[in-house]
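for the writeup, i need someone to sanity check this before i put it in the appendix. the sequnce is what the collaborator sent (i think, or maybe the updated version? ugh). structure was predicted straight from it, no edits. if anything looks off just tell me and ill rerun, i have time this weekend
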Amino acid sequence: MRVNLGVTKALVEGMKNEKIKRFLYVSSIKAVGEGSSVPYTEETPCAPQDFYGRSKRETEVFLCGCDFLDVTILRPPLVYGEGVKGNFCELLRAIARQRPLPLGCLSENARSVIYVKNLVDALLLCLQREESKGQIFHVSDQETPSTKDLVTVMGEVLGISPRLVPVPKSVLLFVGAVFGKKDKILKLTGSNTLSWEKISHMLGWKPRFSLKQGLQETVQKFKERGLSS
């Protein structure tokens, strides 16, 4: 909250003093929620599920209340690409090291993600188009892979056949609860998708890179950084 909202407020105060009006804010789909099997749209009531999501939503509300600003808000899902960290990087490393992954049964869920260059394309388009002012847009890749599909494509671009073990979702959730990792397992096993129909209709945006293309560039940089060893 101190960073997402507090620093934004300080920045806006500086903009006001300098009479700068244009503000393009990268929020997060977590400002709306997490875990729904129905794609989130810009009209979905916001019900963030964690502190990060709530801080992003409160920042959105603050910005929308700044009458002197021309604000555009983008809500991406998980962003991947060169330099990706966190769970995405750990999953790549596990596949590269051919560790067994208990994700073989997770073929029914769906997760929206976005390659960083697709996000940059959307940001540039919003800056170029006047009609983006005052709007909130959702953006993601074209594909919404299941956890199993995502791991499979990761392995394909790594040139490795992932060691997927077919552990039922119920077992994963039980083990997660026992070891205090329930929230992490819920995110891994559940669905979280969004619709980018609005930005496509209003601005003509669509993802330029496919999931596989984005992962190929991500993996190339991943290998160059020596993270696969």
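Residues 2-18 form the longest helix (17 residues). The longest strand covers residues 70-75.
thx in advance!!
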